[in-house]
Write a structure and sequence with these properties.
With about 270 residues, this protein is α+β, with helices and mostly antiparallel strands. It is built from 6 helices and 11 strands. It has a 5-stranded mixed sheet. Strands 1-7-8-6 form a 4-stranded antiparallel sheet, covered by helices on one side. A two-stranded antiparallel sheet has the order 10-11.
Length: about 270
DNA sequence: AGGGGTACCTGCGGGC
DNA sequence: TGCCCGCAGGTACCCC
């Protein structure tokens, strides 16, 4: 599922392929996934592409923006011309929005249909993005900040890591792997973390996200995420504990366990994580 | 206010 | 075989 590294990978890929190009048409095949006016988009040039948390922002020459949230299974696939697309047949049955762009077409696919595309002005961007917490790669992502948010609520640490209004961009994959990397049990109450654990966790979060980015994101068997080029990410080959229940811990050999926290699959090493 | 539960949607795996 | 059921998962929304 697209989390920070996956959306960042999509952003970087599209920056190379579609920035500076004009959107000449849109086909919306599933109305609920496209909120806004098509006429605010058609005829406009793509001026820049950014990311905030798990949200992709495509800025247009008229000051409007396309905000895209991929949720569980959203994809953006770029089929440029005349280079043949080395991937799936498009449009697929999961294709719900198609952008006609000078030089190619951009397909928004979403199997689960939870994702969305919104056309918004600057106020709309602020409204959507303003509620997001600190970016893990930002200099404001300090141990002091974490200490502050961890001390405020009585919840398992894993749930706090995934709260977008506190830290933007971490989802289930990287929360699990970061907690393993820091040697902390996902069930621990966040306020019980000692200073040295918070510091370890901060570094672990940055480390696993950087690694996710380095490998172009995670494309595990049951995940929909692929790059705009149709290529798969490779981070799933480097999962520390995520989806590794029943397998041996990479550090100590103990069998990785799976439990549920907040209804979501949670993976940990009973020996390495305290 | 903060925390818990549920809906959204589809494909897949298990059980019979 | 093939059908039915339960489950997975990010977030919004409702309710207490």
């Amino acid at each position: 599922m697209p989390e920070l590294p996956e959306v960042e990978t999509i952003k970087r890929s599209l920056q190379k392929s579609v920035v500076g190009k004009k959107i000449t048409g849109i086909e919306v095949l599933l109305a609920k996934q496209f909120q806004g006016k098509k006429e605010d988009v058609v005829g406009e040039k793509i001026t820049s592409i950014d990311r905030r948390g798990k949200i992709l922002k495509i800025s247009l020459s008229n000051g409007k923006n396309l905000l895209i949230h991929f949720k569980l299974s959203g994809q953006l696939l770029w089929v440029g011309h005349p280079i043949p697309f080395a991937g799936i047949e498009l449009p697929a049955k999961t294709t719900h929005v198609i952008f006609d762009i000078n030089g190619g077409r951009l397909f928004f696919n979403d199997l689960r249909q939870f994702g969305w595309i919104k056309v918004v002005d600057e106020a709309g961007v602020a409204k959507e993005i303003g509620k997001l917490g600190i970016e893990p790669f930002d200099k404001e992502f300090t141990a002091d900040y974490l200490k502050q948010i961890f001390s405020k609520t009585a919840k398992p640490i894993k749930l706090i890591l995934m709260e977008q209004e506190k830290i933007a961009g971490i989802g289930n994959i990287y929360a699990n792997d970061a907690l393993f990397e820091a040697g902390i049990m996902p069930t621990r109450q966040s306020k019980s973390l000692k200073d040295d654990e918070i510091d370890k966790l901060r570094k672990a979060i940055i480390k696993v996200l950087e690694e996710g980015l380095k490998y172009g994101g995670s494309s595990a068997a049951d995940e929909a995420y692929i790059k705009p080029s149709g290529e798969r990410g490779e981070y799933q080959k480097h999962f520390r504990v995520y989806q590794r229940d029943g397998q041996k811990c990479l550090k100590c050999g103990t069998t990785i366990k799976r439990i549920k926290i907040g209804g979501r699959g949670t993976f940990y090493c009973p020996d390495c994580q305290k």
